[in-house]
Amino acid sequence: MKDCNQCGKCCIHYADGGLSASASEIEEWETYRPDIASYVGAGEIWISPVTGKPMQRCPWLRKLPGQNKYTCRIYDDRPEDCRHYPVDIDQMLRDDCEMLEPRDLNNPRQAQRDLDELMADSRPPMSKK
Fold first, then answer.
1. Contact, 15 vs 46, CB < 8 A?
2. Can you give the pLDDT of all 129 residues of the chain as single tens digits?
């Protein structure tokens, strides 16, 4: 499995309604990050503070100038949904994740173990299959 190359596919794919934040995350943003909280409406995230409608793209995703890479402007304060991605190899396949290599596709169980190890600090452990 390759290191993340910041292709942004995960952020682009899930930005328009595919993500949620817990009540505690929203409360923390309201207290410490009102700039993030301004994009929350009725418990939903990435709602335009101007129109009150869901945004088609995460407001915190930025394309790096002159590159085909993206960065998250709220990386340290991003929702758990973002922290936990990717959950499994099937999800990475669906999302055309560029971290996957041919050897991962040939041995998905090992690839899942590698992913779980890689993500151990970011998300709860996967249940054994």
1. yes
2. 998 899 998 888 877 767 889 999 999 999 999 999 999 999 899 999 999 999 988 999 999 999 999 999 999 999 998 888 888 999 899 989 999 999 999 999 999 999 999 888 876 655 554
Please give the sequence-ordered ranges of beta strands (E in DSSP) within the chain, or none if there are none.
40-41, 44-45, 61-63, 70-72
Could you list the beta-strand ranges (E) of 32-103.
40-41, 44-45, 61-63, 70-72
* Assessment of whether the complete model's pTM goes beyond 0.90: no
What region does 69 belong to: left with phi over 0, alpha with psi -120 to 50, or beta? beta
- CA contacts within 13 A on the Cβ side of 125: 6
Q: Dihedrals φ, ψ of 96, to 5°?
A: 55, 40
